Structure formats: structure tokens, C-alpha cells
Amino acid sequence: MKRPPTASELNLCLCHSCGLACDMTDEPHQCPRCDAPLHRRKTNSLARTWAYMFAALAFYVPANLLPVMNTTLLGNGADSTIMSGVLEFWEHGAWDIALIIFIASIAVPGIKFIALTLLLVTVQRDSHWARRERSKLYRFVELIGYWSMLDVLVVALVAALVKFQALGDIEPRPGILFFGLVVVFTMLSAMSFDPRLIWDKAPAEETDETDEPRHSNEQVPGH
User: Fold this and answer.
1) What angle do CA 28, 32, 35 make, to 5 degrees?
2) For the whole model, what pTM was predicted?
3) Measured in whole angstroms, how far is the alpha carbon of residue 148 from the centre of its chain?
4) What is the block-wise mean pLDDT of the chain (223 residues), using blocks of 10 residues?
5) Closest to 83 (Cα-Cα) out of 98, 70, 94, 96
6) Closest residue by Cα to residue 113 from 64, 67, 42, 169
């Protein structure tokens, strides 16, 4: 069965602001409905995605090695990195907060780095492997990106609770700044990647085996 035509074949461009399918025959620069700029593709998608991801990786190292907060309780102060904070919360029975911080601070950035690297390498190699699954992987990367700041919110919540109980004080440390930069640059990296590049080298016609036309000498079951 013949595949439906693509937007580029119909000379259409989708407005990223209002969703209008715009006719590109006269090469308009703005959407006729909302005046937003029109772009057929994300410019320099691969280069910008690589650049943002390498920047995020550079900030990821100090984000995990430097302390993110200093906690002072009853006159005793100590700096805590992300991992030491996870262990402290776990040892004090706050396993739910420890799990949130571990997933948001360590697991999510790691998954995004691996997923984006896989997408970039396969696109640059013009790979035909698992296009549908790679498209789903990109949507998954976009989805988890919205939850990357959870641990920063948890740190803010813990600081508020400590100050409210008037038993001590919490101060931010440079690590929290570097982690915020990791979040920003990984989100920019995901936003810069154009998932349509996955399908650019697809065959002109994609036929499902179950939809292949029958030959004249084949018998239809039941006849």
C-alpha cells in the first residue's frame, strides 16, 4: 500500500506556534494566521544538538562532584553533593525523597545523554534501523525533560522545612548552579534535534507485508 504524501511533497509547513499548515508556494516567512516565523526544518540541527549536549556533559561533572548545599543543624554544618544527599535521605528513612533526587539528578540526565547520542549517531550514519522506535525514543526524551528540575525543587522544599523548624539553616552551594545548567543545556539539546531527520532516507514507498497486493495467480481463501 502506497504511503500518504509528506508535508514537504505537498509544499506545506506546519506553524510551530498555532499549528496551521501553511502553503509554502510563495515562500512566506511568517504564518498568515499568527505571524510567527516559519521554518521548514530546524537549522543546523545536528551541530546545535551536539554542541548543547557537550556543554551539558561539561557541566554534569562539577554538578555531581561539587556540593549542592550546606546544612547546619544545631551548630554542626556539612556540605552535601547530590549523591551524598541521596544517601543521607535514605539513611534517615526518607527513601521517597532520596529516590526522587536520584532519578531526577543522576538517572534522567544519563538517559538523555545516551538517547541523544544514539539518535545523533544513527542519523549521521543514515541508519535505517528501527525508525519508529527511535521516533518514540525522541518523544520519551522530550517527556522526561519536563521533570529534570524535581530535585532542585526538593532541595528548596527541604531548605524551607529546616528554616521553618528553626533548628538550623541550609545554604546553596555551586553544585546546584552547575546542575541547573545541565538541565538547561540538555533541554536545549533535545529541542534542537529535528526528529524528521530520522525519516529523511526512508524509501519513497513503505509497504507493509500484510498490505502487499496479491498476484493474479494467488487464490483468495474461501474461493
Assistant:
1) 90
2) 0.72
3) 9
4) 71 80 81 82 87 93 82 64 78 77 81 91 86 88 72 62 57 79 88 84 48 41 41
5) 98
6) 64
